Amino acid sequence: MKNEKIFYQGSKGSYSESVLLELFPDYELVSCKTFQEVSKNTTQEGFGLLPVENSLVGTVIEAYESLIEHNLEIYLEIKKKINHALIGIKGTKKEDIKKVISHPQALQQCSKYLNDLDVELQPVFDTAGSVISLLETKSIDIGAIAGDHFANDERFTIIEKNISNHEENYTRFFLTGKKPLEISEEKNIRSAILIAADEPGSLLKALTVFDVLKLNLIKLESRPILGSPWEYKFYVDYQNTDKKIDQLLMDNLSQVAKEFKILGEYGSINL
């Protein structure tokens, strides 16, 4: 599939790239600077990989909103264990570090460690890129947070491994696109957007529909609707394998909710 592209946010060596190299080695992988760039490119060709949720800090709002804005379909969920490390150029010691750079998500996921380290923090556009930028500064007083796979690169020193706030640190990725893609995993999860009617009890009525149809809700998160102050939409994930039940759900929710849209039906892979 060398003629097919998969877009991802970050530099070579990023967690996103490592996911794609493991699962889709025959595709052309294209690095992008932002989630918006990933989703915009995906509307034109190929597919996109977006990190949409982390088990420590929650939903990656910018990534989730970009797939909604560009009307992309979700084809697959991938969950990957995240092993953050503090990294410096070769010879750097922990006591040398005065500033740490990385993607904002990585800085959040390692906040306890960084508070104890008591250093300046500088967010940059991706984890792997923060490590590569150390080669430009050649400064031992700057460290970066990224995957511990950089231990295999002799240009760098792994100052400390396993620095996440919790050892069980996982990121959830969505493979997205605009055109059909056959995936072998059973499609037993749905993601959707729900906007309840603006009247008392409307959210309860909507949730009751899931209960009546015996559907297991596994995510329900409210987010403000841009341009409509104090109005909210809900990110919804539920388990189901029956398209007829999906149709019943949509039909019933159309009676009690302002909007309900399924973003994708997909299976899951754990890496």
Entry keywords:
single chain; elongated; D-Maltodextrin-Binding Protein, domain 2; 5-stranded mixed sheet; Alpha-Beta Plaits; 15 strands; 10-stranded mixed sheet; 39% strand; 8 helices; 271 residues; alpha/beta; 3 domains
Describe this structure in words.
This protein is of the alpha/beta class and about 270 residues long. It has 3 domains: about 5-80 and about 170-175, 3-Layer(aba) Sandwich (D-Maltodextrin-Binding Protein, domain 2), CATH 3.40.190; about 85-160, Periplasmic binding protein-like II (D-Maltodextrin-Binding Protein, domain 2); about 190-270, ACT domain (Alpha-Beta Plaits), CATH 3.30.70.260. Helices cover about 30% and strands about 40% of the residues. It has 8 helices and 15 strands. The strands form 2 sheets. Strands 1, 2, 3, 4, 5, 11, 12, 13, 14 and 15 form a 10-stranded mixed β-sheet that branches. A 5-stranded mixed β-sheet has the order 8-7-9-6-10. Strand 1, helix 1 and strand 2 form a beta-alpha-beta unit. Helix 7 runs antiparallel to helix 8.
